[in-house]
Amino acid sequence: MNPAKEAIDWLDRRLGVRELMHKNLGGYLLPRNINIWYTLGAVLLAMFGLQFLTGTLLLVYYVPDTEKAFTSVTMIMNEIPYGWLIRYLHVVGSNLIIVFMLAHMLSVLFMGSYKRPRELTWISGFILFNLGLVFCLTGYLLPWSQLSFWATTVATDAAGAIPIIGDQLVAFMRGGPTVNEATLGRFFALHVMGLPLAFLALVGFHLFCVRRVGISKPPFGDDYRTTDMPLSFHHEEHHDGVPFHPNYTIKDTAMVFFALALLVAITFFAPGLFIPPDALEPADPFFTPPNIKPEWYFLWAYQALKIFPNELLGLASQGVAMGFLAMLPFFDRGLERRPAHRPLFVTLYLLGILVFVGLSLWGHYS
Amino acid sequence: MSEAPASPNERRTFLGIILAAIGAFAAGAFGWSLFRFLSPVDRGGEDNQVRVTRDLVAIGGAHFFAFQGRPAVVLQPRAGEFVALSAVCTHLGCIVKWIDESQEFLCPCHAGRFAPSGQVLGGPPPRALDTYPVILDGDDILIG
Ligand code: FES
């Protein structure tokens, strides 16, 4: 008698799990030429799970109070056994998530997988990316260090450039004219409750879209065919494909492990990478440290704001750029997905990356 | 000796075993850190003595204080004679009250009663209150 088999039999009689498992694992066929970039979703999922876990653990000792926040974080780092590990994993993990999100989006762009009929997958993913950034922004304030305080001041200040309602908007976001305990309260609530709930729901929708529409075939190789937009709903099947399990699950797992290895490598050998010296001083609202800069993933926006003659113009151009990216599948309606056959797109793609990297470096060194 | 190259299936199984082993190791290491992270923090002072000034304890009165992280009480039943007891009721852990008039402890939860020596006088408590050693040191009382 095999207890595992018994348990599955028991479940199968009630919920039909065998059929479910077959449909989603062994019998779920993926394109034969699927590549490593398709694992980034699983990597991100794992990383988010870890953020959720480490975040919950940090909540055990963190105190969201302007008088106590910094001391509680210092205590986590110095007194609680392995507190440093949990906090560094959370900090480094958040940065890596942005890196993996960018890589995920860039690969989807390059392979043209955002095109119809996958507009909803793209848009939900794009919103997830933005939620990720808000996660970072709100989490940044919580340790209540000099860096937290002034980076948040600078970041929220940008909204002041919007005409008429700008000042009110800034005050609304901060819960007062300057960053203060009200800001900490609302950022904390968002970071630990509001955002995770919204994020979870949207991840669910995103995965639903991925599963429902079917995995797109990588646009490489001789057997590439342009698929027409079907007239009615159609799940993209890959009859000669490879099974999701075990073929792809093992690849997913291996990539997740690589990502985790990178995470612990940075945590152990370069923990200060994302923690500049200003993060080690408690916040002082009466002293602005020199050279306060946003996190690396906001540097492009920060520099863009600086080079435009007028803040409003800078802000508007960022809005247009982000809006354009979000709505890309509606502008880019061609069905061709092979990069070699999309010279205009690939040129813009490379230029876009160059502008992002260039602006970020410029922002970093200016 | 030449061997046939491993089939994709064999390679997958091999990779699976390696990943499972690394995963088990990592989960173990992380699990241990997690356990330590959540264990009570040893803030020292576990076996430290507590010093209470004599003036705080009236004759026939009681003074409550924290000893090793738990409520405790020190009494002066007769001039110059001090008794230190745990204030945690031995029944279900409520904190006992000192009743001046009757010179005994009353537990507010289920009306357990204790003598100044800690002995049970009545009610559900199964055994006496724990006692702590007391040393006189000038104007202070050293407990523990
Ligand atoms: S807890 Fe004290 S009498 Fe029950």
Q: Briefly, what is this?
A:
The complex is a heterodimer of chains A (366) and B (144). Chain A is mainly alpha-helical.
CATH topology type of chain A: Cytochrome Bc1 Complex, Chain C
Bound molecules: FE2/S2 (inorganic) cluster
Low-confidence stretches of chain A: none
Number of helices of chain B: 1
Tertiary shape of chain A: globular
Mean pLDDT of chain A: 92
Q: Widest sheet of chain B: strand order?
A: 2-3-4-9
Q: Major sheet of chain B, described briefly?
A: 4 strands, antiparallel
Give an overview of the whole structure.
The complex is a heterodimer of chains A (366) and B (144). Helix content of chain A is 65%, strand content 1%. With 366 residues, chain A is mostly helical. Chain A has one domain: Cytochrome Bc1 Complex, Chain C, CATH 1.20.810. In chain A, strands 1-2 form a two-stranded antiparallel ribbon. In chain A, helix 11 (299-307) packs across helix 14 (343-365). Chain A is globular, with a radius of gyration of 23 Å. The mean pLDDT of chain A is 92. The radius of gyration of chain B is 29 Å and the shape is elongated. In chain B, the strands form three sheets. A four-stranded antiparallel beta sheet of chain B has the order 2-3-4-9, with no helix packed on it. A four-stranded antiparallel beta sheet of chain B has the order 5-6-7-8, with no helix packed on it. A three-stranded antiparallel beta sheet of chain B has the order 1-11-10, with no helix packed on it. Chain B has one helix spanning 8-38, and strands spanning 50-53, 62-67, 70-78, 81-86, 97-99, 104-106, 113-114, 120-122, 131-132, 134-137, 140-143. Chain B contains one helix and eleven strands. Classes of the chains: A mainly alpha (366), B alpha+beta (144). The A-B interface holds A 57, 60, 79-83, 85-86, 246-247, 250, 253-254, 257, 260 and B 12, 15-16, 19, 22-23, 26, 33-34, 36-39, 41. The complex binds FE2/S2 (inorganic) cluster. FE2/S2 (inorganic) cluster (FES) binds at residues 89, 91-92, 94, 107, 109-110, 112, 123-125 of chain B. FE2/S2 (inorganic) cluster binds at residues 89, 91-92, 94, 107, 109-110, 112, 123-125 of chain B.
